Inverse folding.
């Protein structure tokens, strides 16, 4: 069962707030997760994206893969380098 680094939605209607979590790929979006890595607030201007880099590196070393959305955010905020391959 692969581990994914993805967003888990919180907040109320029309006011989203997300946690960046490491979760089993088969778990529901807002269901059981393994670890909280950070937060993402898309409503702030500019958006706020905070991640614990030590936890992120630990999970990436274990083999967790970020979803495309999380990967784009990590690249945009400088936590990951853009690879030359189109994955």
């Amino acid at each position: 069962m692969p581990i994914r680094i993805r967003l888990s939605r919180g907040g109320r209607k029309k006011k989203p707030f997300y946690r960046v979590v490491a979760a089993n790929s088969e778990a529901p979006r807002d269901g059981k997760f393994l670890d909280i890595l950070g937060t993402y607030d898309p409503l702030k201007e500019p958006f706020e994206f905070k991640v614990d880099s030590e936890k992120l590196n630990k999970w990436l070393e274990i083999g967790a893969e970020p979803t495309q959305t999380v990967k784009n955010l990590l690249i945009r905020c400088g936590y990951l380098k853009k690879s030359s391959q189109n994955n």
